[in-house]
Amino acid sequence: xxxxxxxxxVAIVGASGYAGGEFLRLALxxxxxxxxxxxxxxxxxxxxxFVHPNLRGMTQLKFRKAADLEPVDVLILALPHNSAAKxxxxxxxxxxxxxxxxxxxxxxxxxxxxxxxxxxxxxPDQLSQxxxxxxxxxxxxxxxxxxxxxxxxxxxxxxxxxxxxxxLGTLLPKDIIATGLVGSxxxxxxxxxxxxxxxxxxxLRVYKPVGHRHTAEAMQELPGNFPLHLSAIxxxxxxxxxxxxxxxxxxxxxxxxxWGAYREVxxxxxFIRIVKAQKGIHRYPDPKLLDGTNFCDIGFExxxxxxxxxxxxxxxxLVKGTAGHAIQCLNIAQGWDERTGLEFAGLHPA
Length: 350
Known about the structure:
The chain is of the alpha/beta class and about 350 residues long. The protein has helices at about 20-30, 85-90, 110-115, 135-140, 155-165, 190-195, 215-220, 255-265, 320-335, and strands at about 10-15, 35-40, 65, 70-75, 95-100, 130-135, 145-150, 175-180, 230-235, 240-250, 270-275, 295-305, 310-315. The chain has two domains: about 10-150 and about 320-335, Rossmann fold; about 155-315, Dihydrodipicolinate Reductase, domain 2 (2-Layer Sandwich), CATH 3.30.360.10. It has nine helices and 13 strands. It has a seven-stranded parallel β-sheet, sandwiched between helices. Strands 9-8-10-13-12-11 form a six-stranded mixed β-sheet. Helix 5 packs parallel to helix 7 (about 215-220).
């Protein structure tokens, strides 16, 4: 496929995996983008719908090897963690704008990266060149950015759920405990999936109750200094994350203060919705209602006797947690309406 005049040409490296495939799905309907190349080492020569059957009739692209890539306007790297950082030099000559969907350039402190990823960063001199891809926190830095490191999915739910309350001092600087109920697509492929998605080979991980890697991102991005504890629990769903966060407010604070913080910080955010109804079955965020959308739904409940507040933050990990975040960041970087290509409202019933 050749580029269309007036549109940006896009290539996706690792497009047979979940993240790359989701970016492809969104980009094919984006009015300002033309996807011209997609790579998969094992599936080279294979039509895209053989791997992503939901894209039947949407594209005639075939996978190619990364070595055969031609220059484009925008390059999307959807590779396993610790891969893009080792090969970034070969990709820099191919595009003016590069967006990485892995964790390779998210963490600015090499020591923090080594602590949570178990090895030294392969290209520490690169870290300062990348903008952390969370539009709600870094919109101004994203304007005109050419190197974007998209935020992690679990980290996104934690950061967006806590940021307004920490920024405005609505929470006490004491232990904050976050537990994510996470779909399988957020945790890497299963062994059987890996044979069909080679870009995810080596990225398999088992959920464990302590030491989640996204702790590093949350520590980096959230204001203040406090103990933060993340746990991820696998669920039977493929898509979606519902994170509950337990924190404490100062004496005398009420639900009104929590409401006020969210309203003040998120009043104009197009993809943040505060979900807190007084009655009915949809009183709290529900990730199944967010499948395919770029929304983050946030709710809360407060125990006034103890000052404990339970925050709830839900997203589709493949959209607001990965590919949708990337599209939103690219829209901002290019000066387009950041909602472009992300208008899908979700399904109900789901």
